[in-house]
Amino acid sequence: MTISAEVLDLADRVEAFVREVVFPHEHDPRRDAHGAPTDALVQELRDKARAAGVLTPHIRPDGSHRSQRETAVLLTRSGLTPLGSLACNTNAPDEGNMYLIAHVGSPELKARFLPQMHDGRARSAFLMTEPWEDGGAGADPSMLKTTCRRDGNHWVVNGRKCFITGFEGATIGIVMARAEEGACMFLVDLPDPAIRIKHIPNTIDSSMPGGHATLAIENLRIPADQMLGKAGEGFKYAQVRLSPARLSHCMRWLGACQRAQEIATDYACRREAFGKVLIDHEGVGFKLAENKILLQQCELMIDWCAGVLDTGDLGTVESSMTKVAVSEALMTVADNCVQVMGGTGVTGKTIVETVFREIRAFRIYDGPTEVHKWSLAKKIKRDWKTAQA
Q1: 34-81 pLDDT, tens per residue?
Q2: Which parts of the sequence belong to the Acyl-CoA oxidase/dehydrogenase middle domain (predicted)?
Q3: CA distance 213 to 161
Q4: Are residues 227 and 278 located together in one domain of the fold?
Q5: pLDDT tens track for 216-230
């Protein structure tokens, strides 16, 4: 599939907006206690993105989603700085939540929740992960402990959640819980007094407003018509969201590492030591060369996986492979950039240090590398057994 001239032009405008308007805000002091941009800063930038015609670029004016290959071009450009994804409304968890609602929600739920999300007026949260101390769901959603039971025209939910990205300040939530029929998903308005924030930990990453909250859910009553899809099919819907969401993370963080490479290259071409600029020292120049190779490999891997998803295939295996390959490669890229820049690389003078921290977290969320490799190994064994039969 060829990317249309219209999408390429839009991508150019997204990049120009991010570079000209968003980059100057990278050191904006409006940050919360955990270092994330405040909602005031995010809304200011979204107003500017809206005026520039680059808000939510991966959604067409009619509300439909662009293809995954088109989305890759747009999200990579918006991701040139972590703040760019927030400004353009292509950030997690909102981008994945919009995708899920569009594919699973009833017409009524789509009409109620999606317009405010597409317009960048609402932030959302995906309530799936649970505390390990309770034996709850993490990388293995089948361990889901939060319960839901039918009570007349409502469902009543009880349980605990943790690492719920963006919950504080969100106005829309997708809650995952287990019923007798199996896993279920619900759309809820936030805040709700039945969902209390117990704790927001300090984490290595700081790009997402609202932090990663630990929550207590006590007798949350949800109207039955706010269930996403059918009771018992929540795990299937989770894969509808998670496969493309893994790929979207790869797209955004590819953009961030491309920017880190730009900064490290500029530094290495200007900084002199031992009689020549740093890039002329093999130990430095080779790291930037390795980065260039890895960035190209990541771009190709993302494009390949996007093509698979665009065929209508759920792409679970392909997205797992891509998430592992890209997250590990980008970790090397970010680390090389820090190393090339020496002491400057570990300071807040540029966003290289921020990108390094964010990529380190990326290797864990939406499934750590080890879980994806374990899943792939199981498939290899199944395929072998099939071939022997």
Answers
A1: 899 999 999 999 999 999 999 999 999 999 999 999 999 999 999 999
A2: 125-202
A3: 8
A4: no
A5: 999 999 999 999 999
Q: Would you call 31 helix, strand, or coil by DSSP? A: strand
CATH label of the domain that carries residue 295: 1.20.140.10
Query: Do 41 and 178 fall within a single domain?
Result: no
- What single string gives the DSSP state of each residue in 282-351? HHHHHHHHHHHHHHHHHHHHHHHHHHHHHTT---HHHHHHHHHHHHHHHHHHHHHHHHHHGGGGGSTTSS
Element (H, E) at 182: strand 182-189
Residue that finishes a domain, picked among 118, 150, 184:
118
Q: How far apart are CA 288 and CA 274, in angstroms?
A: 19
Residue 223's nearest CA partner among 171, 172, 153, 175 is 153
Tell whether 389 is covered by a domain.
Answer: no
pTM above 0.85, yes or no: yes
Domain-terminating residue out of 88, 103, 118: 118
Strands 172-179 and 272-273: unpaired
Are 197 and 296 in the same domain?
A: no
Q: Which of 253, 364, 337, 358 minimizes the C-alpha distance to 298?
A: 253
Segments forming the whole domain that contains residue 309? 235-380
Residue 162 burial (10 A CB sphere; 0-12, 13-18, 19+): buried
Tell me the residue type at 357: R
